[in-house]
């Protein structure tokens, strides 16, 4: 069952109120600055289900939440990513994501992606792009069942640089005029992950067809989702397109679709007051809701950077016409 949206952020979530936290910006991001607040203890606590449920609600409200200097093991990270979704009502068949070009002999199993600067530059196509804003995306929206929550721990970082930015889909929706919101609510978009088919071909490997949910088993990774969706945890509307994977607005002509998508991508990347930029310290953990945020890395560093990412799968994205917007819910 969807959890009702709260009108006051973290303090309402009783089980988390014992931990110090503050909002990174008015619209997105909450930081738990105290290094004694450890996710490892949270997931092992006797009331772990209550704590993780409240954490999931907070992440869905704030888009992304940060914890400093964490000792979370990979096993705990996997458990946390799965529990965040389970405790907020995701389908039983939705498990952790296994990437289409993940390998069976992956260091920590197929559910753990090693985010490494060794391959990131080539993978993101950064060298062929002229603008850093080209990297904005939500994870795996090309799947029938895309991600709900993602948990990333960055353990090795350059001395300076390598920040990650997140943008709020809630606020992106709220910034549009009522007429434009209504127009977008009647549209669907095609999300395309065929870039991974190309990668697989180059690497001479097969696409992994076991990707964490029975619906995600095709080698063709193309999905149609509404342009505006409702977050099932907060019951709030959010803009659900991204430059990384959204290729077409289905109800429009090619020219109209290209124009509209370009406008929406700029709407996200050029409104820096709906974004948060995070400067990592070693072993910081970010947890975000992929349904209501986009993110992008900053490739401005030369030293080695590496982290472990685990992605949970949610349900099929939908628009509930009776859901509302974040600003309306908060009386802003
Ligand atoms: Fe990502």
TrEMBL record:
Coiled-coil parts of chain: none
InterPro entries hit by this protein: AtsK-like, TauD-like_sf, TauD/TfdA-like
GO cellular component: cytoplasm
Keywords from the UniProt entry: Dioxygenase, Iron, Metal-binding, Oxidoreductase
Entries under Pfam families matching the protein: TauD
Molecular function in Gene Ontology: 2-oxoglutarate-dependent dioxygenase activity; metal ion binding
Residues annotated as domain TauD/TfdA-like: 44-307
Domain of life: Eukaryota
Stated family: Belongs to the TfdA dioxygenase family.
Name of the protein this chain belongs to: Taurine catabolism dioxygenase
Taxonomic source organism: Macrolepiota fuliginosa MF-IS2
